[in-house]
Amino acid sequence: MIALTAVGTLGGLTLLLTTALLLAHRRFHVEEDPRIDDVEAMLPGNNCGACGQPGCRAFAEALVSGEAAPAACTVALDAERAEIAAFLGVDVGSAERLVARLACAGGSNVARLRARYQGPPTCAEAALVAGGGKACAWGCLGFGDCVTACDFEAIRLDGHDLPVVAEDLCTACGDCVTACPKDLFSLQRADDHLWVRCRNENAVDELLEACTVACTACARCAMDAPAGTVTMAGGLPVLDTAALRRASEAAARAAIERCPTGAIVWITDAGDEIRGRAARPVVRRSVRPAAAS
């Protein structure tokens, strides 16, 4: 008898809760705009997050609600963005193009090792063992976690184990930023041409023994750049990119000319890096020993 009462009570509670849920669903249900499915189908489907949304579905919802413009999708082709704009009856809009840039120039030809790392050949694993074995504690470890993370084949390792970003292929998804254990990657505006290729905050002359292209905090770039556009902090140049955009190209490029190591560079529209006239020639000094697998 007790068992039957318990079963009946549970059954009644279940029925009551089910009824409450159905009533709540009817009261609070919001019809979804059917255009969201159509717009999502027009998007690349990479779910890279470069648009600022967690995925293509969320971006489609933002487009339909008018909270975003088609131009924010940096992966889609111009024709695809135009198709979405025409479908929604909105302007394509404009967006600042971002690209991933690496704050290190210390490949195996210019940066020394202080220890031989033996372990899984990944930057993440190497960084756990005394920072990876490189003499510069801030330097790129060169095992290519960023290359693996990039789904758009926009990053490759050069002959000296240094990542090179093909800016025309970069979608600014940020996966390389997340993958780098040294926090050397960041997303920058493509039309910002001045760039500091170093993160070493140990501003002493001896650091050149660790890496011949490191910033020595000589501050010549700050002295030569338009007033206030380049300042020194923590042993490194800090760029006021907004102020640099307002300066003429000739004035902004003056910042690189007297840099003795080429730690600050000018990046052209084609993605090529130009070092200043005073930068010492890069002379091969060492080769990274192969990591044990």
- How far apart the termini lie comes to 69 Å
Helix content: 25-40%
Order of helices and strands: HHHHEHHEEHEEHEEHHEE
Task: Choose one word for the global shape.
Answer: globular
Structural class estimated from helices and strands: alpha+beta
**Poorly predicted ranges (pLDDT <50, ≥5 residues)?**
287-293
Residue-averaged pLDDT: 88
The total strand number stands at: 9
Count up the helices: 10
Strand order across the biggest sheet? 5-8-9
Proportion of beta-strand residues: 5-15%
Major pleated sheet: 3 strands, antiparallel
- Output the radius of gyration: 26 Å
Description:
There is one protein chain. This protein has 293 residues and is an alpha+beta fold. It is 31% helix and 11% strand. It has helices at residues 2-28, 35-42, 56-65, 78-88, 123-127, 145-149, 175-179, 220-224, 241-246, 249-257, and strands spanning 98-102, 155-157, 163-165, 185-189, 194-196, 230-233, 236-239, 264-267, 273-274. The strands form 4 sheets. The chain has a 3-stranded antiparallel beta sheet with strand order 5-8-9, with helices on one face. A two-stranded antiparallel sheet has the order 1-4. Helix 2 crosses helix 3 (56-65). It is globular. It starts with a helix and ends in a 19-residue tail after the last strand.
